[in-house]
Amino acid sequence: MLPYCLWRLPFAVDFPMGTIDPAAPASAPWWVPFYVVGLSVLTEALALLTTGLVSGWGEVVPRWVPLIGGRRVAPLAAVIPAVLGGLALVAMFDLYPLAWVGLLPEVGYSNGWWMARRRRPASQG
Asked: How far is it, in rounded angstroms, from Cα 118 to Cα 120?
C-alpha cells in the first residue's frame, strides 16, 4: 500500500509524472492536494489496522460475540471473504482491465520507455 500512496502524492502537487490525458482539466481544483494526501493517510491507516488479521487476537473470535465467542477462526472463514472482497474491489474500482480489452481508452505517456521490454533472443535450432 505504501508504494501506491507514494506514487499518488506527486499528483497532489499537479505533477503528472509523464502521463498525457487530453480529457484532464488544465488545473486541478484547490481541494485536490488535501484529498490526495488525506486519501493516502487514510489508506495507510487502514492498511496498518489489517495487521490485526495476522496477530494473535485474529485467531480466536472475541468472547463477547454471541454463539461463537472464544472459538478458533477457521482459515477459510477469513480467506474466502478476503479473496471475494478483493475481487469485488478490483471489479468496482480498477478500470485498467477494461482499457486492456479496448472498452476504455488508456492514458498515454510522454515517451515510449514505459513500453520497454526485455527482448528474448531468438532460439537457434
From this structure: 6
Which alpha helices (DSSP H) does the chain contain, by range?
2-12, 32-49, 75-93, 96-100
Give the cell for residue 68.
461463537
Sign of CA dihedral 19, 25, 30, 31: negative
For 30-89, the pLDDT digits (tens) are 888 898 899 888 888 877 777 766 666 567 887 888 998 888 888 887 788 878 877 887
Which 8-state DSSP code applies to residue 109? E
Question: Cα–Cα distances in Å, from 109 out to 5, 6, 97, 118?
Answer: 20, 19, 18, 19
Q: Are 72 and 59 in contact (CB under 8 A)?
A: yes
Is the model's pTM score more than 0.70? no
Stated as kind and residue range, the H or E segment containing 75 is: helix 75-93
Length of the chain as a residue count? 125
Mean pLDDT for all residues in the chain: 76
